[in-house]
# Entry
Amino acid sequence: MGHLSRRHFLGLVVVGAAASGVAPRLPVAASPRLAGQPALSDDPFTLGVASGEPHPDSVVLWTRLAPDPLAGGGMPDADVAVAYEVAADEGFADVVAQGTLDALPEHAHSIHLVVTGLEADRLYWYRFRAGGWDSPVGRTRTAPALGASVARLRFALASCQNWTGGYYTAYAAMADEDLDLVVHVGDYIYEGGGAGVRPHNGDEVFTLAEYRNRYALYKGDEHLRAVHQRFPFVATWDDHEVENNYAGDVSQDGITGPAWLERRAAAYKAWWEHLPVRMAPPTGPDLQIHRTLDWGGLARFCVLDTRQYRDTPVCLVGDGPVYPACPDLDDPTRSMLGADQEAWLAEQLRAGGVSWNVIAQSVVFARLQLFGGFNMDQWDGYVPARQRLLDVLADTSTPCPVVLSGDIHAAGHAALFADAADPTTPVVGTEFVCTAISSSTIGRSFGTTGLGAVLEATVPGLDYANADDNGYLLMTVTPEAVTGDFRVMSTVEQPTATVGTDASVTVTCAELGRGDTPPPPSTTTTTTSAASPVRATPRYTG
Ligand code: CA
Ligand code: FE
# Structure
């Protein structure tokens, strides 16, 4: 390998906010670092601005300079200075941090700026300037102080935003919500080609340049940009950020080795470049993204990676699973999270100091028989690993667990039983699944309606399901309860739509065996799912 320049270690730049009232308030345009910069002939802020992962004293600010976004960005192959300002007010009268940093060509001229020294639990505004152009003004906020009493947290849960599946009417609605955060659990892009409601820019993507152009297409949507501009994100990935249904170091078609890892490296790099995430950039096919985020004493988010470390799927015959008549599925050595992440997660969940443990991750956790079988790409394909996590959730000394999921292009709420396969065991957690922002719902994909009601009637613990509508989840967390409002769009096949609430589900901490009230006895009717022949199922590509 050639020499490593200083710049290979950059990418996540940390700066401190100046002490309020002491900082010289030079206008950003007067920055000496910008003075020697050539002007850019076209607006480089086509992909908008974003923020993410608020801590009590810091937040990540993001942008990427791309005057020609769909064709590699259109930037010179050189470092370009970007000036930033962070203010305590929307009019930038009270600037609390400012300076310049370089956007580097090796990171597609994206910047990830960690602004520190901020006050807890308040709004901030930020903007950038580069090449003679001003960015839009973004708004963000900091988290409450660690352990602080917090009356309410409100966030949106989003997943599965296939460009070809439809317009981002859901993001248009989300931008009007009153949110502290947006939690994204994956399928931020889709790697395939295709047309659908809106055509992708080209065929399936494989190279870093192609992944970058795909992100640029998605980021070009005004409603997605608006949501990023307004709320900080906490993001993890699912499969389509790389390739449908891949598992660790194996592609969905069983491809392994250097070519696959090269593709994974390109995909992970492009993900890092385009999301406002708080981590250094990857230098190869590996990137640790599991992490926690505390919201005062109210909630701890454990953000998981269910793709990078998972074992190869088993019990697939052709496109159909043969579970439960498949001994490989009971192999206790198989893992969804990998040993390190699994041990880390148990430690975080047991750490305490918060009312709620919120586990943000990509794929459905509850046992879910669908189309006569089980989806081996979900936790149903990793039964002993799921049970190990359920055992941690069942420990009543761990704060109340809430699992958040996406991937399935349907919405739902399910009780999590101490034994996933036995609905007569106590309820030890609760799972909220958001439907797709725009990807074709199960109902749209298979030309059916009303599947949700069928699932509610047949799947133990599943008290709400909607497989027909696109939308997102509006989540409200208080010390006592968590509420999910299932927001649904009238359409994603037209550019404009109306939003409604299909259902609201509230779960109290006491119902999960915590607090003073004992958990209610389970009244769910048990349906057996004996080893019966599994029908041929369509290959599900959530
Ligand atoms: Ca997926
Ligand atoms: Fe998806």
User: Anything to note?
Assistant: The pocket of fe (iii) ion (ligand 2) is lined by residues 160, 187, 240, 407, 409, 439, 542 (CB under 6 Å). The CA atoms of residues 212 and 270 lie 6 Å apart. The longest strand covers residues 422-433.
